[in-house]
Every structure is written in structure tokens, then in C-alpha cells.
Amino acid sequence: MSERLQIEKLGAQGDGVATTPKGQVFVPFALPGETVTVEIKGQRASLLEVNEPSPLRVAPKSVHFGRCGGCSIQHLDPESYAEWKREKVVRALAMAGVEAEVDALVVSPPASRRRVTLSAQRIGGRVQLGFNAAYSHDIVEIQECAVAAPQIVAALPELRQLATLLASGPKPFRLTVTYTRTGLDIAAEDVGKIDEGKRRRLVEFCLGKGFARLSSEGETIIEREKPVVMFGNVPVTIPPGGFLQATEHAEHVMASLVQEHLAGSKYVADLFAGSGTFALRLATASRVHAVESEGTALAALDEAAKRASGLKPVVAEKRDLFRRPLTEKELVAFDGLAFDPPRAGAEAQCEQIARSTVRRVAAVSCNPGTLARDLAILTQGGYRVTRVVPVDQFLWTSHVEVVALLEKPRKRN
User: Fold this and answer.
1) Could you report the per-residue pLDDT of 257-266, keeping only the tens digit for each?
2) Residues 6+ apart with CB under 8 A from 60
3) Is 143 annotated as a binding residue?
4) What is the pLDDT of residues 2-23, one digit of tens each?
5) Is 350 in the active site?
6) Is 245 annotated as a binding residue?
7) Which of 79, 175, 278, 410 has its CA at 20 to 30 Å from residue 51's CA atom?
8) Residue 258 gets which letter from DSSP?
9) Catalytic residue among 68, 145, 206, 366, which?
10) Residue 270 annotated as part of some ligand binding site
11) Tell me, what's the pLDDT at 326?
12) 272 a known binding residue?
């Protein structure tokens, strides 16, 4: 049965929020101030009609918007959208008791996403390839994408052919596609065992299409050319499935902020260093100690540093910073530090940093909530937050990256 609701605000995931006698209801694709007709199922509702649209509503950029789950908020005007994302960071800091001004959102442009993860599944006699529908495992096949790099969009027909070769049954699987300087790097997950016959067909197909590399569950099937990205002026061969910032634009913005903040440091610790996003840039001016738990990422960083010219010394250490954070005593050697942990944040490591004498810290995060918790730990240890910059590399989604810059005043004797 359909009902009419008045949308009061936007929720954290970009859904419209309405209040009913039974509690809050979340309505995808609805905006504050709108009157909408919906079908309610529990706490969620399907939008049937916008009866009274908001003046903030704009035409979406993609013909797939509303079905494809890749984007959730293309229908909000750019200024309101940017402020909504900025406010997510403001609220997270306030809830943690961290006092800091938050800059305006830095937005990555459309068609700049160099990495996307596509879902695929054999249904009936054909393989579907696209993004999952919103709040569903159904696949929406796409012919265009407003956020992906044009090189990825142009390859969609060939990627469908590749998915057809990979599919071995009805089980869904994923293709993570990365645009690199040397071609597309494709990492398959959940495709099952690949026998020699299928391997030969995949190799022949990828060579014919000019893909740089195809891997499955971290194992390389074919590498026509090493997939190379640039971290500053340093070429890096990324490992199969290895972490990479989704857009080059956002990576450049975040790295520039980190570099500028740590510019005067002589010896920098880069924690959760990945394949060297920050370390290899920082090494143009400072000695760097890079710490990472994932072996293939660290090997890529180490190899790139050794091949590069004009860098200060870079030491790579394999270490699980969740279980064994750098201690207060170990941190004595450094006058600058950067950290970019997974979504869980770096609570244990920040407890050690808070007690340290490191003068300047740059914190990068994909989770405003855990970042706020970590910043609270650091400020309680004497650090002062000097700047907070939200960065929008996942355009038209609820995700936001944040760079926070901190300083610790020298103790007076």
C-alpha cells in the first residue's frame, strides 16, 4: 500500500528521511522538503512518485541513476551536495569533541574514476556485467558511466566478453578494473578454478584486446605490460588487487596537502604506506620510513624507490600496525609523520603518536567517524588540529575522504 510522506532531511547515506508514527523511514532518491509517494517496507521505502519536488532537485547525469547502485545522490544540486558532504565531517568531529574548522569540499570531476569494481553473473544463457542495483544483488547492465574514466567506459563491450570467458556457473563474481598508464589492469574475484584450457583462451583474448594484466585472486593470468601508475614523478607497478586511490585527482590533492605540511621534516614515518602513495612523494625532500603490512604492496614501494632517481633514502618495513604499532620510543627518530589506515582507523597507533615528540602529523582517512576518534586521541596528547580538508573522490556517493593536519608545540624547558 502506498503512502505520502514529507521528507525532513538527508540521512548519512544520502537517503531522504521522513518521520512516521512508527519511526523514521529512509527513502532513496528523495530530498528535504519534498512530498513523495512511497511504499514502505520496514524502515526503508521505495520511491513511487515525487509529488512536490524540492527546488534543490536537478536532473541526474546518468541514464542509469535510480536503478544502478553506484551513485546515490546525483539528483541534488552541486552546492547543497558539497555542503552535505562537508557537514558529515563537521558532525563527526563535533561528536568526538574535536574543535577544528572544516574547509569546503574538494570535488573530483566526473569521468575521473580510474578504478571501478563491476559485478558479473551468468543468468540464463548470457553473462550480465555492471553495477549492483541499489540495496540489491541484482546487476544493472550499464552502457555509460558518469564517474568512470572514459578508457574504462570504452572497454565495457570487451569487459563483457571477458566476463563471459571467466564465468563458470551461476555464481556472481567481480572484476576490479583499473586504468593505468600502460592499459587496463583487471583483477577477478570469485571466478573459481581456472583450468589450462580456459587460461589459454583468457591469455589469447587479453593479448588481442591490449589489456595490461589479468589476475584472479591475486595470481597473474597474463601480463602484457606491467600496470604502472605515477606517484609524483615515480613510476610504480601496482600489485594485483593492491590498494589505490580511486581517482588520480583526489590522490594529488591529498598528497599535496601531506607534502606541504611535512615539507620541513627531515625524517618522516609513513604508516599504512601501501605502495607508496605518500612515501615516494615525501622522499623528494625527506628521508622516509614506510610501514605496511601487505607484502606485495610493500614490495612495489620498495622496488619503485630503488629504481627512482633523486629520492632521499626510503626504508620499507613490513609490520602489522594494528597488532604492533610503532611505539613512543621508536617515534623519537621522526619529526614528521603521515598515516592513512583502513576504515577501522589507527586507534592503537594514535595512542603511541599522542605520547610522542613528533612535531607534525598528517592524517588521511576514508572514514570521518574513526578519524574523529583518532584526532581526539591526538589532541588529548597535546596536538593541535590546524586544518581539515574533505575530499570527494567518490562522486555522488555518501563516501568522503578527509585530510587532517596537526602540530605539537615544542615543550618549554
Assistant:
1) 999 999 999 9
2) 66, 71, 74, 75
3) no
4) 999 999 999 999 999 999 998 9
5) no
6) yes
7) 79
8) H
9) 366
10) no
11) 99
12) yes
